[in-house]
Every structure is written in C-alpha cells, then in structure tokens.
Amino acid sequence: MTQSEQRQAQIVVGLVATPPDYPARVAARLTDELAGQLAERVDADVGWTVREGWGEVAPRRDGGVEALLDDLARRRADARWDVAICLTDLPLQAERVPLVAQVSARRRVAMVSLPALGLGQLRAVRAAVPELVGRLLTDASDERVLPAAWAPAELARRVPGIRRLIGEPDGGELAYVASRLIGQVRLLTGMVRANRPGRALLGLSKLLVGAFGTAAFALTTNTIWQMGDALGGLRLTVIMLLGLTALVAWLIVAHDLWEKPDRETPAELARLFNLGTVFTLTLAVAVSYVVLFAGTVLAAALLIDTSVLEQTLQRPVGVTDYLVLAWIISSLATVGGAIGSGLEDEDTVRAAAYGYHPEAGGWRDENDA
Fold first, then answer.
1. 21 pLDDT tier (thresholds 50, 70, 90)
2. Cβ contacts of residue 88 below 8 Å, gap of 6+?
3. pTM value?
4. CATH number for 56
5. Least CB-packed of 40, 82, 222, 246 within 10 Å?
6. Where are the alpha helices (DSSP H) in 255-356?
C-alpha cells in the first residue's frame, strides 16, 4: 500500500455500551475524544470514525464473555464496522480471577469490563480502548494501519488493574486479567461505582423522612435520654450496627433484591451481583445515617434546653451528651426508616440491585434516533 493510499484509508470503530445504563454514560464521554486518541496513539495517517451504539438492556449472562463477544461480532458485521469495542458493567471472570478485557482478532471485537477497573474507570478506559483497537487491527493483519510496536503483554503496564494475560499472542484471542486478591477488591469497588450509589441514596428519600419522624418523636421522650446516658460506647456501636444491618436486610428482602442462581445466571455471577447490591445499599444507608445523625443533633440542640437535660440526667451536660443522645436516637430511628422504605417506588428501590437494569429511557440505539 502506497503512502497516498494509506492516507486515504478510513477505519470505522464501533463503541457499544451493554447495558445502556452506566456503560452508556462512559461510552458517551469516550466517543467525543476517541478519534483523536486513535490518530495520536495508533496511526495518524488514517481517517478514524467512531460510531456509538447501545447493546441489550439485559445482556446475556449464561455464556459469559464468549456470548458477549459473539453478540458484538454480529452487531459489528450488521453495522459494517471495521472493529468493535464493548463496554459492559458485567463482572466477568477468567480462571477465577477478574477479567478486565478480552480481544478476539478473529471476530475483530474486544470487550472491557468496567467494574474490574476499580474507581478510576473513565481514566482507565481512555488508556485501554485505543490500545485494544490497535491490537485488534495488528492481530487481524489490517494493512491500513502500522503494526503495533508493543507486545500484547505490555497492556498490563499501560492500564491500571491488568496483571497478566491469558492466551497465545499469536492466536489473537487474548484475555487480560487482574490479580487474585487486589483484583477482587478493585472489582467490588468498581461494581459499587458502576451501580451509582448516589442514585440509591436519592431513591431512599422516604426512608430518611420516616427515620426523621421517628427521631423527632424519640427526642421528646426522657426515657431515651436516660438510656443514652446509661449505655456505653460499645453498646451504642452494637445497636447502630444492628440497626443498619437490619435496614439493609429489610430492603433486600422486602423489595426482592437478592439474585438467585438459575439457568441464565451462574452461581458465581449471582454471588457477585449480590455483593454489589449489599455494598451499594450499605453505602447508601450509611450516608443516610450520617444525614439523620446530623439532623438529630441539630434538632436536639434546638428543642432540648440544657437545663431540662441536666434535670433529667441529674448532672451537668455538655456537647458530648447531645451527640450521644443523637447517636442512640438515630440508631433506633433506622427501624422507623425501614417502615418508610416500604413506601418507596418499587423501581426506585430495585435500581440498587446490581443485576437490575431499567429500560434505557433516553439512551437509544443510533438506528432508532
């Protein structure tokens, strides 16, 4: 191929988000800058075109990464893209360690699992996707671009979270995996990030209102004042942890958030989904508890005069006593919050379940736009 012909070459890269929820937001930010990154890091003499697309709302779970790549390959062929990259929030594994990315030169597709990248997912995706495109074109012997000058194993140095690769580099079928221990921790934190705990927190607004109502009633009961004074820090901590645990368990049971293994969902995937749900709810409930505690402290300071509290406790009181009072009341009020959670919109609460994906809404396939 001559230099002039090479300059005229056009390569179309498809960027598919599966499901079209959190991955679509990452894909939308990446699409605007990917063509420039490909020109800079793969080949500046090629015209790069990036097409954005959305995958299934409920991606296949039973076939793992191979099913995902097969679906992506059919999508690539139908859309007449040269190569395709899939961004997914599915937590995938290879040889019982988290799978970060997989490349298939035969199908001219690659996949990136966002949760395996941990918290800094957008930064890691920016580093990984151009390299994966270059690797795909090199392994597929595409003469329109210059062959990649780096070995496949070097991606582990370029992308945080990748520890080693599985497969034969000459075969073009490569899996990039994380470490066993740190990779699992990174995967779980990445799942919570992808599950958007802020959405779960906003979805528990009625829970917080119910808890505030319970706390306001408890503030008027001097028996609670005496209980807070009598209990030590250890027992108050136990009460708080029991209340938060009971609330998380109630949310999961009452709204059927627990993922059960079945023919379509392997046991290992269901376990990861449930861990992601538990951690997301725990974070949302913990933040709600902090908000409740702060509000209770403020209400106690405004409503309970120091002299009244001293008369009940029969000793001088200070700021610490108000904090302890707010502590026990907030812990007990979480039970009232559980009652309030039963009033939440079902879809709002179910959004906290990792395996649940609502309809795409504003995220539409570009063919339907």
1. confident
2. 17, 18, 19, 23, 55, 59, 68, 111, 112, 113, 114
3. 0.82
4. 3.40.390
5. 40
6. 267-303, 306-313, 319-341, 346-350
Type of residue at 185: V
Does some domain include residue 49?
yes
Q: Which tops the pLDDT comparison, 344 or 330?
A: 330
Amino acid 337: pLDDT: 62
Which residues does residue 110 pair with via DSSP β-bridges, in sequence order? 85, 103
Element housing 240 (H / E): helix 233-254
CB-based contacts of 236, cutoff 8 Å, min separation 6: 228, 324, 327, 328, 331
Torsion of CA 73, 75, 77, 79, to 10 degrees: -150
| Helix (H), strand (E) at residue 53 | strand 47-54
Tell me, yes or no, whether 160 lies in a domain: yes
Among the candidates 187, 222, 257, a domain finishes at 187
What is the structure's pLDDT at 58? 67
Taking alpha carbons only, the member of 147, 94, 101 closest to residue 124 is 101
Half-sphere exposure of 366 (CA within 13 A, CB side): 13
Residues 131 and 216 in one domain: no
DSSP annotation of 13 reads E
8 and 30: one domain?
yes
Rounded-to-integer distance, Cα 138 and Cα 338, Å: 56
The whole-angstrom separation of Cα 225 and Cα 234 is 17
Are 59 and 90 in contact by the 8 Å Cβ rule? The answer is yes
231 in the same domain as 112: no
- What digits encode the pLDDT tens for the residues 264-274? 778 888 899 99
Q: pLDDT tens digits, residue range 190-229?
A: 999 888 888 777 777 777 777 887 788 788 777 777 877 7
Residue 224 tokens, joined: 């609670």
Beta-bridge partners for 47? 10
Percent of the chain residues topping a pLDDT of 70: 88
**Per the structure block, which two tokens stand in for 134?**
């270059």
